[in-house]
Amino acid sequence: MSSNRSSPWLYFALAFGWSWLFWVPAALSGQNVMRFPVVTLLVLGGLGPPLAGILLMYLEQDSEGRRDYWRRVVDFKRISPAWWAVILLFAPVRSLLAIIVGLLAGEPLPAFDTALGLLSEPLSIVPFVVYTLLYGPLPEELGWRGYALGRLQEKWSALASSLVLGVMWGLWHLPMFFMEGTYQQAELSVGSMRFWLNFCVSIVALTILMTWVYNNTRRSILSAILIHFMGNLMGEVLNLPDQMEYYKAIVTVVAAIVVVGVWGPRRLSREQVEEAA
What we know:
Blueprint (H helix, E strand, L loop, with lengths): L7 H22 L9 H7 L2 H13 L2 H12 L6 H24 L8 H8 L4 H10 L2 H5 L2 H12 L2 H15 L10 H5 L5 H23 L5 H18 L3 H22 L14
């Protein structure tokens, strides 16, 4: 059972503190963070969310609570076939809709260079997929959804919790926008329209959708890892142009609004959300 020491704010302080301790020096160095030795700062910084979540979970939970946490990471049976479909198909369908809207608006068909490159070198697909899973989805969700979301929902509604978590998740990435060699630094610029859509609007809407799935899959951390992974994978593989990225963000926001309207803001679920172990 969660103790009185449970606090999402302590979690955020630890996660941000650890990550930014490494990321701020990496940004100030001016070096490409994808190259050794600076890449070690990037990797170590990315461990902030899981380390903070796992540490606090072990301090606050008894042995049964700890077993419940790790079961929720690996137990695929918590996810029904319908929710598997949502998890695996949302990101591809969202991108497809963005492409269709873009084409109807007169945009050219994307080049799909990354996708074609992977198809031309099939042996590169497995390491690409593993890298995409490990660089973000797997470690981050051990903290964001694995710890923070549950603590936020102890205090507020599912919608309010998602809004807070979405803002914090977006802010956590901020140093990456100033690191040479990151996607954020190369493809986005602070204050640009794409910055506001992707890391201030779309990320909050996506957080609402992830809470919706999490609450309807018996608090499955695995579901959050897979949604995060599918979003990153489709983003990397398709690499849509700016205008289609705008349409993709709009689709995400509309989907979040529909979910809140249909399932309700209190739990984003028609059933009682399973309480923490």
